[in-house]
Design goal:
single chain; alpha/beta; 4-stranded mixed sheet; 3-stranded mixed sheet; 5 helices; 31% helix
Length: 134
Amino acid sequence: MDQLVRDAMVPEPLALSATASAREAGEALARTEVRAVFVCEGDELKGVVTRKTLVREVVARGLDPKTTELGTIAEPPNATVDSTMLLNDAFAFLEENDLERVPVVEDRRLVGVLSRSAVQRRLAEDEPPPELEL
């Protein structure tokens, strides 16, 4: 049976409202395990904010992080994948585009995040063991 992206994605990734402040994103990004914050209007993915985004769009421009809304600084995601995409195809897509992780969407709704390492592990689990040559 072919595996789908939804079988290997991390569901419910960290997302903040487009009206949330840059300070809220900064607090989330201060945790070492958080590399990006997804910005949504309702459930719909609108963009991504990273540490680099905060420095370039808020700090360097002298904006107040308490009042700067994420919707005004979020960058469009480099790419997204659909949850129903075949996992092998998603892995090839990540490899071809040199992406480590990508948001997973269903009808523009953010439903998860897929990492290249998780896909590699998942695909390796399904490989049959190598045959021993005697």
